[in-house]
Specification:
The protein is mainly α. The protein has one domain (16-38, 66-170). The chain is built from 10 helices and no strands. It has helices at 2-6, 15-18, 25-35, 42-47, 66-72, 74-86, 96-106, 112-138, 144-160, 163-170. The radius of gyration is 17 Å and the shape is globular.
């Protein structure tokens, strides 16, 4: 009866990134928004005629777009590289499609390593978004190393609270 009421829906490619991900809810929400291109970046805000500084707040070199903020910005690249090296994963984080292909092909199970990868990706994305907002609204700028420290701390603590990931996180 439940299946009759629910209906048949195709499985979406991003479901593993948000479902069965042990990252904090705020990280998963930002991940879901990013997957759907709904984060209020400057290019998106300008479509609604909302004025904002066009330059990326993290690097001050290019206009802020979703793609630039998360993938081509020098600051973001440094954070992504540090997070993927720390978690011992070789992930191409040059664009969202490559990240999603990685999740679909390499992290499609509930193994501890797959859960750790999904959580690390979500937390990293959230921390980059949060840093952007902290600079805009509070005028405080943290280094990439400080963001990496916070990412490691969140992933480590969340991993210790998950029986399946506990031994894996202790080895990092």
């Amino acid at each position: 009866m439940y299946n009759d009421l629910r209906g048949d829906f195709a499985k979406v490619s991003w479901r593993k990134m948000t479902c069965n991900n042990t990252a904090p809810s705020k990280c998963l929400f930002v991940t879901w928004l990013a997957i759907h291109g709904r984060l209020p970046t400057c290019d998106r805000l300008s479509k609604f005629e909302i004025q904002c500084a066009q330059l990326c707040t993290l690097c001050k070199k290019e206009n802020e777009t979703h793609s630039h903020l998360f993938f081509t910005c020098e600051f973001s690249k440094t954070v992504w590289e540090g997070a993927t090296q720390w978690s011992n994963k070789n992930i191409n984080t040059s664009n969202w499609q490559d990240v999603m292909l990685y999740i679909q092909s390499q992290c499609n199970m509930n193994k501890a390593t797959h859960q750790l990868s999904r959580m690390t990706l979500s937390v990293t994305q959230y921390m980059i978004w949060n840093e952007r907002n902290t600079i805009i609204f509070q005028g405080i700028h943290h280094s990439a190393q400080e963001l990496l420290r916070q990412i490691k701390e969140i992933v480590y603590i969340r991993g210790l609270n998950t029986n399946q990931m506990k031994s894996l996180v202790l080895r990092l």
